[in-house]
Amino acid sequence: MAQVNPIFEDIVNANKQYSHNFSLGDAAGVANLYTENGQFLLPNSDFVTGREALQSTLQTLMDSGIKSIQLETLEVEDYGDTATEVGKYILEGDGGTMLDNGKYVVIWKKEAGQWKLHRDIINSSVVD
């Protein structure tokens, strides 16, 4: 039986908390899953840096009609207190309507025993 990478499981569990907080409309709760100087790199946008800016941006996304985020972790590599994750996402609106889907890369940092998003970049797979 193959061994499960415990860091992989930690990242999957952190993503479950991210999705849960987002589905509750809790932008502050999602922002708190990032490091103090965490960054969110959205397409066609500048850097969103720091928890206050992250909370504001996440609230804007929620207010725009995004009701939930599904995250699928495909790969995790760890380097001590840093890890990288590659995955896929789906953004949903009312009634589970798919609004967007794509891929992401996150650099995670371990702070006080907890994995936090440090650099988060997403990239839509939807072709116009």
UniProtKB/TrEMBL annotation:
It comes from the Bacteria. Residues 16-117 form the DUF4440 domain. InterPro entries: DUF4440, NTF2-like_dom_sf. It holds the Pfam family DUF4440. This is DUF4440 domain-containing protein.
